[in-house]
Each structure stands twice: as C-alpha cells, then as structure tokens.
Amino acid sequence: MKFSNLLLALTLLFSFSTFSQHKNVSSVPVPDWVDEQNIDTSIHKDSIQNSGYIYLLVDETDNLQTQESYTRAIYKLFNNEAIQDLSSLNFTFDPEYEELIIHYIRILRDGKVLKRLNLNDIQVAQREENLESNLLDGRLTVINQLKDVRKNDVVDYAYTIKGWNPVHQNNFQSSFYLEFQFPVLERNYSILVPQNQSLYYKMQNGAPEPKVNQTNQHIIYTWSISNPNVINYEPNTPAWYAPNKYVEITQFKSWNQVARQYSDLFNVNTSEVASLSNSIPEEIKNSKTEDEYINKAIRFVQDEVRYLGYEGGLNSHMPSKPSKVINRRYGDCKDKAHLLSQILSLREITSFPVLVHNSSANQFNERLPSGVIFNHCIVQIERGDKKYYVDATLSNQGGDYKNIYFPNYHYGLPLKDSQDDLELLPSPEPSIISVTDTFILDSIGGRADLEISSIYRGSQADYKRLEFAESNMDIVKKNYLNFYSSYYPSIKSTSDIQFIDERNKNEIRIIEKYKIDSLWKKSTENENVIFSEFYPMAMSHYFETTKTAEREMPYYLNIHNNMEYNTIVFVPQAWSIEPLEGSFGTDAFEYNYDVKYKNARLDLVHTYKTNKYYLEPHQVNEFIKEQNRAKESLSYFLTYDKAFTGSNDNNFDDNWLSLPVSILIIILSCILLNKIGKNYKVISREKEEWSRKIGGILIFLAILLAFYPLVYFGQAFGGNFLSSPSLWSDLFSSTWESSFLLIFETVASLFLMVFAIYLNVWFYKRRTYVPNLLIIFFSGVLAINFIDAILTNFLIEGSNVFSNPKWIQGLSFQFILAVIFIPYLYFSNRVSETFTRLPKKYREYKIKNEEAFQF
Asked: Rounded to an integer, what is the distance from CA 675 to the centroid of its chain?
C-alpha cells in the first residue's frame, strides 16, 4: 500500500471508530408496496451438500415511482464456519443521494423470533474498497454484528435503499442474477413500473419469462425461480464469462438515447475552454504540427496527470471540469479522457470520449442499451477517415497515437449525438518479445558467461517500462537473479542491468550479464558423463496450464504470449550435433523449435504464439496434450563422455597431431629468432663502454616483458588446441571455420611466446636491436588482436567481437602500452645509451670503424 493510501486508510479507520449513527440511516416497517412471503425454515443440513449454510430466500423489489429498492434475505446456519462468516450484516449506500432504511433484523430459533436490530449498536464506516485502485466513491457501510448466533439459527433481515443517482435522469437500468455461487431455495425479483413509463428487458442464459400483473398505478414484473443452480467457477475462467441466468432491464430505447444523455455530461462552456487554454503547458501549445500536438497532449495527460478518482454521486458518470483536473494534476478515467479530448479540441482536432468495459465487453453487442454496463472511459481521435483510440489512464506508454498500444475492449459507445450503436473497437496488434541467451563456455566441465538480451515491443514494452518506473533497480536485479537461480543455482550477476528505452519507437531492450560457476552436472547413471542443460527460461510460464481437461466453462488464454527465444551456446571445442526441428500446437497456440550447429556455435530457437483469447471446454483436452508434448522439446542437453574421449581432460592421445605441430611451431620460431639475433645489425651511436645500466622506465618494461611468455603460454595451451578430438578432421570439412580460427590463434600465441622469451634474453644482454624489436612486438600484438577479431566476425556467424567488453578491455591495455613505450623506445636517449651491444660477429667491424661512431 502506498504511503498516501495508508494515511487515508488510517483516517477511514478513525472514522469507523467515531461513527455510531448516521442521519441517512433509519428503521421503519416494510412498505406496503412490498409483497412479503412466508418461508418454511425447517430445512435440515442433510438436504444440503458441501455447504454450511443455505439461503432460504433472496427477494428484491424495485419501485420506479418512489425510487426505492427493497431487499430481503433469509438464511440458515449449520456449522461454526458459517456462523463465523455470516454473523456480520453489511449494508452499503451513497449518502449523497441514498438513505438506508432497515426494516428488521431477527433470528428465528425453535419457533421464537429474536429481534437483533438496535440502531445504537450499528457502526458506520467509509471502507473505500477500491482504494488500492486509486478510486474513492464515498459510500458508507453500515455494520451490524449479530449477537448470540447458534447452529441451526435462521437469520432474517430486510432493508430498503431510497433514492437513485440523479446522474441517470430517472432512466432506470439494471440487471439481476437468478443464480449464485451459494445455495438458494427461492429467488424472486419484482419491479414496479408506473403505467406511463416503458420498460425493456432481456433474459440471458435461459432465464425465465416474468409474470406480469397490473394495478391502478403500476405494471408489476416478477421473476421467480426455485432451487436455482449453484454456479461453481472453474480455475482460469475468463472474466467476461457469466453462466448465471440473469435478466437485463433498461428504460433506454436505443443506444443513441444513451449516447446523447451521457454526452451532455461532457459538455463545456466557453469560459471553461478559455480557462483550460490558459492552463495547458507551453510545450504542447508550441507544437509545430498537429501530430506533434496530439502526441504531446497524450503524453502529458497519461504521465503528468495521475490516476485518482472520486466517484460518489454525480461523479460516478460526470467528469470534473478539465481546467480543474489539469490544475490539481489528478483524475479518474473519465476526467483524463475528457481532459485529453478538450485539449485536442483547442487545436480543432476531432475527438470523443468513449464508454467501454475493461474486461467483459466482448458480448456487449448482445446487451440492451444502458449506461451502467460500462466501467471505463477512453478517447477516440478522428483523423480524416481513420479513427485512433487512446486510453488516457495508461501511463509510460511508448510510440505515437497512430501505433500506441490500445487494449482489447471489444465494444465501445462514443459519446456523440450521432452515435446510433455500439462501435466495434480495433484489436491490438500482437506484441512480440525477443529474448537471446548467449552462453560462452570456457571449457568442458568449467564455467560459463551468460548474457541475456530481451527486447520488448508494443504492450510488452509499456508493461516493462511501467515495471521499471515503479521498482527499485536493485530489487529488480535481485528478483531476476532469484528467478535464474532456480535453473542455475551457482549463477552470479557480473554487472548492473542495462535498461535501454527507445520510447518513440516503443521498444525496450534489457541486457543482463551473469557468470555460472557450475553449468555442468554429473550424470546419475554414468559417472563418466557430464552434461549441461539449456532451457528457454522466460518462456517457461507459457506452459503452466491446467492439469485436468474436465471442464464445463471456457479456459482463459493470454493472447499476449508471443515470444521468440534464441539460445546461443559457444562451445569450447567442435561438437557432433545433428540439426533438429519440430512443431506443436492447435488452433489456439503455435510452438516451434529449431536446433542448428556450425563452427562451435549452437543455436536453439523457440517460438511461441497464442492465437485465441480462450478455449471452449471441448478444446481443452487437445490443448493440454499438445502443451505437454511441446514441453518435452524445451530442454536441450549437451553431454560429454570422458570415457569416450579419454580419462584425461586434455586428451593428447586422440589429438596426436596437435602436439607435434606445437613443437614444430616452437622450433621454427626459435630458428627464425636465432637468425635475427645473429644477423640483425643495428649500429649504436654510443660506445659500448659508455653504455648505461638498465634503469628508470626500463625497469618497468623489464617487469612487463617477463610476464609476456606466461601470458602467451596460457593462451596457447590453455584452450582446446590439444584437447579437441576433431580439430584436424574439421579443418577439412564443411565446418572448417572454427578449427582454422583456433589453429591461427594457437600459432600466433606460440610464436609470440617464443618471441617474448628471446626478447627477455636480448633485453638483459642489451642488444642494440632490442628497441626496434620491442616496437615490432608491441605493434604485432595489436595487429594480431585486430586480425583475430576480424577473422572471428567473418568466420563465426553471429559473432561481434568488437562489442565484447573483454576484448575491448584487453585491446585498450595493449594500446596504452604501445602508446607509452613505442615513442619512448624510439626517441629516448636513455634507451640508446643502454642498448649498445652488437652481436659478436659485428663487434670487430665496430672496432675497426670506430671513427664512424664519433659525434
């Protein structure tokens, strides 16, 4: 609960404790226009299954002439649980236009009538049940705690609500259920209509026809049903589904009548238009084009005017003045829709508020004309012959008004005088989530780096943008890590989550980076076998479906389940992997998978799409079967058998060619460098006896140079050159690229290792050619790194080494060393005065020509 809501809740709690009576609460006998019934209360629990109580009667009567609604309920309690749940009577009313009249509250026990109504005992509370949704209605709840309630007691109470909301202008509109989710013996509903008024009604789901009686003043319609069915909703039933028998009642003859009446509530006068014009931000006013004006107006109303509404009395359907909403910076759905529509009208852009229902409107085309069946308000924008729709209550949306996400509200009623019928609203375009998991395995049985890149579009981008706006980034990071740890317990985050929002495009990219210490597991069946599992983690909840196909009600499907999931695995050596593909699905969903392998890269591609909003009961069985079949294809296992490849992880026996090749490279490098050491002639200007000792910056260079042989030894022999069982065979196959790249990198590392060793020797011998060779060495390291990156990007599909942080970090370090030492080696007097010794074969030449070295 937000802090402001908490304060409000405490205020309401205080109100609860201080109210004891209310001027709008009274007690009088049952009015004479009510036909009270006598009910047999002798029913026994044996005749009731799976319930601790039963309603003997639920009776309602509406009197259109007096604008009163009478209710009577009688129920019998059989156990302590029922007593606990049903010993508190709550009566709710709106004090702005309603009065609560409690006729009686009594308990029937052993033929006695025990009165339980005392107005001094009741409490009145403003509960605000929609407070968490930022909606206040000002309704009051009268609470009467029944005293001394026992098993087999019958509770009988009756009350009347007097007064109807004047916003409806005396046009009665309602609906009532004849079946409930609890047992009822008798259900009655009556409505008294004055002779000079019309009434329209429609029976739904097999509801019975009414009995019609007339008096001098009224036409009385009565619906009665005995032992109605108990409706038990099944899990995951769509919100719009109502199997209950029910009846709609209205005094509206047409949808045009509804549209005209409620559109009058949204009218504004010229002074209000002027006030609004002075209040809108300059940024909106200064828009150069109408499209820019519309987009800025939408963004302002959605994001800068918070959602909060007071919907008591007339405010249930009448919006606040737009200038008032913009100045206080809050409003409910109709306030925000009205504000947006009026801001657009200032630029002569045609738009209208539209009444909709946010969850149950897919069958509204079968409903009678009524204004109370809607619970939400949006905006329709007309641009030429096209119509666009905006929900002003949705904050943090991306895109412009032409492609902004609009929920599937099915049907709506634009509030304009010319509107004759409900309007079919556009369905939202599917929003695809694209997820790419990239695993880089450092060795077989070793660790792995994992990068997860997720791209959200459309409604999914809106939801994700809102999630991050309302959440602490550290908490989001922790929640993500907890989710992944269920698949990889040793997973650790290695960087902060990157949240990249292209709001105008309405696309969000989230990048996460992790390290997994224990990606591999040992097989429980064979101790020589280890394996790693790869699973489309973010797609897993798409397959959390019902376990049973036995249903009588529709099964809800999330139409937004639409994902492309690609898992990329860079394996540490060549692998024998056969391509696979498969498809599963029904007309309700599609799932496909594809396994590809090339150049030590494994691609696991999963796609999932939901095609329907719900399933009919007879379709659920096939859906479950296909979902279960598809689940079997989600996991992919890489297995490695040590017994097959040798007991030693670095298997020299099977890859016999790699070791002699390594020795040959070292020998050839030594031969080349020996020749350079003996024959490379660089004449120093300094006399050898005048040479200086190694000192200054050269000490740091000597320390650095000592580490290079170790670094390149690790790069040459720490990889898979000696252990890959198919390195040389793959070199002459269709998948030669990864083998060629590994051989190139190993040859380069071996040569640089030998080169560094010789440089260390020559460095301490202070050979004259050392500065030149060091310049060649530092330049060569940079060049080889670039060549390796270019070859990798060219040969290995999907690689982008230039964006790899590790590669950038390593290259940056080598570049800094080159920038520091190359100029120093070339220009420094200290260097030329230190490295003065020629190879032995050139020393006599220097002595004979000593004059050549005079300054």
From this structure: 66
The Cβ of residue 710 has, within 10 Å, a number of other Cβ atoms equal to 11
**Residue 81 clears pLDDT 80, i.e. is over it:** yes
Q: Round to whole Å and give the CA distance between 396 and 798.
A: 33
Backbone angles phi, psi at 443, to 5 degrees: -165, 165
Strand 529-534 relative to strand 636-641: parallel, antiparallel, unpaired? antiparallel
| Burial of residue 4 (number of CB atoms within 10 Å: 0-12, 13-18, 19+) | exposed
Output the six-digit token pair for 594: 């594809």
pTM of the complete model? 0.74
CA 452 – CA 438 distance, rounded (Å): 6
* Amino acid (one-letter) located at 9: A
Residues 360-380: pLDDT tens digits?
777 888 899 999 999 999 999
Q: Which amino acid is at 193?
A: V
Question: How far from the centroid of its chain's Cα atoms is residue 610's Cα?
Answer: 16
Inter-helix orientation angle 770-795/736-765, to 10°: 170
Return d(Cα 571, Cα 487) in angstroms, integer: 19
Structure tokens at 318: 């009448």
Cβ 604 vs Cβ 569: under 8 Å: yes
Cα separation, 739 vs 661, in Å, equals 14
Average pLDDT of the residues of the chain: 86
Q: What φ, ψ does residue 207 adopt, rounded to 5°?
A: -65, 145
760/753 Cα distance (integer angstroms): 11
CB-based burial label for 663 (10 Å; 0-12, 13-18, 19+): exposed
Are 100 and 161 in contact by the 8 Å Cβ rule? The answer is yes
- The helix/strand/coil state of 151 is coil
Cα angle value 462/464/468 (rounded, 5°): 120
Quote the pLDDT of residue 10.
Answer: 35
DSSP 326-390: HHHTEE-HHHHHHHHHHHHHTTT--EEEEEE-SSS-TTGGGSPS-STT--EEEEEEEETTEEEEE
In contact, 674 and 638? CB cutoff 8 Å: no
C-alpha 497/C-alpha 511 separation (Å) is 6
Longest dimension (CA), the chain: 144
Backbone φ and ψ of 376, nearest 5°: -155, 160
Contact 428, 406 (CB under 8 A): yes
CA 717 to each of CA 420, 580, 801: distance values in angstroms, whole numbers, following the listed order: 81, 34, 22
Q: Are strands 562-570 and 433-441 parallel, antiparallel or unpaired?
A: parallel
List Cβ<8 Å contacts ≥24 apart for 424-428. Answer: 424/365, 425/354, 425/356, 425/389, 426/389, 428/458, 428/459
> Following DSSP, what letter does each residue of 572-620 receive, concatenated?
SS------EEEEEE-SSEEEEEEEEEETTEEEEEEEEEE--SEE-GGGH
Tokens encoding 417: 């005088």
